[in-house]
Amino acid sequence: MSTKVRTADTRERILTAACEVIAEIGFEKIRMRMVAERAGVSTALLHYHFDTREKLFTEAMTHSFANTAVDLERDAETAPAALVLVRILRSLLPTGPELQQDWRLWQELWARALRDETTRAFAVDLYAQLHAWVAGAVRRGIASGEFTPTDVDDLSTLVLSLSDGYGIRLMLRDPTVTLDSALTAIWRQASAALGLPAALPTE
Q1: Other beta carbons within 10 Å of 126
Q2: How confident is the model at residue 71, as a pLDDT?
Q3: Are 68 and 163 in contact (CB under 8 A)?
Q4: 1-51 domain in CATH 1.10.10.60?
């Protein structure tokens, strides 16, 4: 195995471990040693790759977002546009253990962004990437003729806002909100704007 590959593998293990530890105990409580132990590396090696907790946190958030996006890129160019959009909607909600972990990371990001300007700017940038992700899927559907033309930016902002609102209530285990009801409500707004059936498309 080359040095470059080993380095990439080490960074991957560290970032995966950081996501897990931050989601479990919160950013304010983590110590670099905890992440090093979870990743199976020395503290010195961890500091070689990430010299501060803040850098580790931002890299972990980026890593989490990138992994979610990669998972959804499968056959995105050939699958029906409505199906691609529903996959994105599901990924924006805490629909399983991995996405629940992502949501805990986002909650840590929101809390930290309220107190730290650098984190605030980073959070705004991540939202811009999410917005572009949703908007890209909508634009592809419009371009292919599968969607009725609409204000893409307005719809993307609405989808993200609804996802945040319902996602928080799902994370709080609010008994009045279920995953199905959240997806249905968000899809109702998106499908109406795009001229699609109100029923959620299935794989």
Answers
A1: 18
A2: 58
A3: no
A4: yes
The CATH code that applies to domain 53-194 is 1.10.357.10
Q: pLDDT band for 30, please (50, 70, 90 cuts).
A: confident
Tokens of 93: 């909600």
Mean pLDDT, residues 66-70 = 67
Where in the chain are the domains?
1-51, 53-194
- Name the nearest CA neighbour of 170 among 111, 120, 96, 61: 96
Of 43, 38, 45, the C-alpha closest to 19 is 38
Angle value at C-alpha 71, between 69 and 75, nearest 5 degrees: 100
State the pLDDT at residue 63. Answer: 84
- Residue 67: how many other CB atoms lie within 10 Å: 15
Do 194 and 138 contact (CB within 8 A), yes or no? yes
User: Which tens digits make up the pLDDT trace of 119-171?
Assistant: 999 999 999 999 999 999 999 999 999 999 999 999 999 999 999 999 999 99
Distance from C-alpha of 22 to C-alpha of 108, rounded to nearest angstrom? 8
- Other C-beta atoms lying within 10 Å of the C-beta of residue 25: 14
Q: Is residue 179 exposed (0-12), middle (13-18) or buried (19+ Cβ within 10 Å)? A: middle
